[in-house]
Amino acid sequence: MGACCARQDVGDQDLSKTFTLGEAQTLLPVVEALLRKAREAQATAAELEYEMQLSHRIFVSGGLHVEVSVAARRRAERDKAVQTAKDTLAEIDSIGVQVKDLEEGLLDFPYVMDGRTVLLCWKLGEPAITHWHTEEEGFAGRKPLDSRFGKTERLN
Fold first, then answer.
1. What confidence tens digit (pLDDT) does each residue in 94-135 have?
2. 149 or 11, greater pLDDT
3. Domain boundaries, the chain
4. Distance separating alpha carbons of residues 146 and 152, to the nearest angstrom
């Protein structure tokens, strides 16, 4: 796939941004649409990269004449898709939502529970945010939301 978008966490994340469950649920359709856009751009970039590498291998083995203008156009299309993915991920980041795995479609919304930041966890395809985990546990340690998450208002 290349280095365009395979990231496990957001480096420039404003860690002070937190959400209530209500805020996270309300934002979910917006960030889901952005996530889908980033995934689409990533897939396009990967397809174009594969196509370019395949053409190059065939050319190097003497089996294909490469039209420079076509190759340049495909490279520009790939670069645009990579930039679209990066820009879309940056937009999600600016909202305060963490993209944990673009390919799997994993998003985390920081939430304060008992004075400690935990993560409301959502995976592409789920109808709503129904799980949470600590930063240390990650997705593998996610648990269903319980009564501690029923509050939709901020305490402060």
1. 999 999 999 999 999 999 998 899 999 999 999 999 999 999
2. 149
3. 21-149
4. 13
